[in-house]
Structure formats: C-alpha cells, structure tokens
Amino acid sequence: AQKVTQTQTSISVMEKTTVTMDCVYETRDSSYFLFWYKQTASGEIVFLIRQDSYKKENATEGHYSLNFQKPKSSIGLIITATQIEDSAVYFCAMRASSSFSKLVFGQGTSLSVVP
Amino acid sequence: GPKVLQIPSHQIIDMGQMVTLNCDPVSNHLYFYWYKQILGQQMEFLVNFYNGKVMEKSKLFKDQFSVERPDGSYFTLKIQPTALEDSAVYFCASSSGTGGYEQYFGPGTRLTVL
Fold first, then answer.
1. Is A84 helix (H, G, I), strand (E, B) or coil?
2. Segment A41-66 mean pLDDT
C-alpha cells in the first residue's frame, strides 16, 4: 500500500522569502510519480509540479522547485520569492505505476505568507 | 490550466434520497476520477473511470455509489441512497493519460446530507 505523510501542519513566512515544505512517501513500486497541488481558500485545487521517480534532476516550474531525495523517500516543495497569494494548503500526492492512476494524498500543509 | 467544471457547487438533501453529482472534464481527457474530502482532511480516492469502465475503486466507493459517462456527456457520481457519512466535498478530476497522468481538478461539490 502507498502512503504519503506531511508532518508540517502549518507554516508562516514573510513575503518574498523562500519556504520548503516536507513530504515523505512509502511505496513498494520501483516506478512512481510525485505531485504537489495547492488548495486555495475558495477550495480550488491547482496542479503545481510533478517529479518522475526515474529522473535524477529536480523538477522546476516557475517559482516552484522540488528537492527529490529518493534514498530518503522524500519530495520537498520549495517556493522562492513567496507572495501573499501563495497562501494556501499544499498537498503532496503520489501515483504508483502499479496503480491504474489513483492519487494518494498527504494530509496537507497550510502556508501563510504575511507582509 | 485545463478546466474541469462541476455542477452543482452545493447540494443539500435528506438522508435516503438519491443524488447525482455532475462533472464536465477537460475536453480531450480520457481518464476520470472522483475524490472525497471531509472538512479539514486530505482528499481520498473513490474511483477512476476509463473507456466506459470502472478501472479501480477504493473501500470508500460503497455499493450505493455508481459512476457513468453516457455518450461523452457529464461524468456523474450517483449515490443512492445517501447516508449521513456521505456529507463531504466531492472533487472530480480528469487526466489525458499521457506523461505522469497529472490530474486536473474541478472546484468540488459540497454535499450535505441531513
């Protein structure tokens, strides 16, 4: 069975700084995909970035980047130059290749970006 | 990004009634999903649907649940009969089936069962 764990319940940072959110996962599959989504205050869920397990390079997308440490089963999300509108709940998710395509989500980390 | 639509945004019904939640997925997507989120908790997978069939479902997808997408119209989740524990936000998602199969989510339907 797959499992995704986000231990940080909430984080508060100053605007324009860098924040890292942690996520660890468990799977017996040798091939899998890792995703980060954010859920805004209105409830909208937005896809942010993806990491393929077979790729050594960390994925980047705009001011989002990932810190993929495969031996530690860890996939951290890094947001640089944070903005007020980055305030949201961030979910880490995994899809194992053995699963048809279901996503297993972590518990989420609430990020507050303050001026 | 790609948009998934869901109708209605909020539905209130009495326990035991039937409810149908509607989803309009991204036009060229082939894979469709339903997830359930209880307030303040993580999203949990219910079911995925491809080529007219349920491909995978979780324990949360009870016998009272069914999904279909007749003739390329809305992808629907039907609950009959509803129970109090079905109160939650239900998110529809779709993916193209290429690359990492990233899923794009709709805004959710908040279901309240009284």
1. helix
2. 94
Contact A106 B108 (CB under 8 A): no
Please calculate the CA angle A60-B91-B107 and round it to the nearest 5 degrees: 75
Characterise A27 by phi-psi region: left (phi > 0), alpha (psi -120 to 50), beta (else): beta
pLDDT in tens, A59-110: 999 999 999 999 999 999 999 999 999 999 999 999 987 666 789 999 999 9
Q: Do A47 and B104 touch (CB under 8 A)?
A: yes
B54-to-A55, A102, B66, B70, B80 alpha-carbon distances in Å: 31, 12, 9, 13, 18
* B24 touching chain A per CB within 8 A: no
B57-86 residues touching A, CB cutoff 8 A: 58
Q: Does B100 touch chain A (CB under 8 A)?
A: yes
Residue A88 near residue A39, CB atoms below 8 Å: yes
H, E, C per residue of B63-103:
CCEEEECHHHCCEEEEECCCCHHHCEEEEEEEECCCCCCCC
Neighboring chain A residues of B107 at a CB cutoff of 8 Å: 42-44
Using CA atoms, how far apart are residues B106 and A22, in angstroms rounded to an integer?
A: 26
Distance CA B69, CA B96 (A): 16
Q: What is the pLDDT of residues A10-45, one digit of tens each?
A: 999 999 999 999 999 999 998 999 999 999 998 889
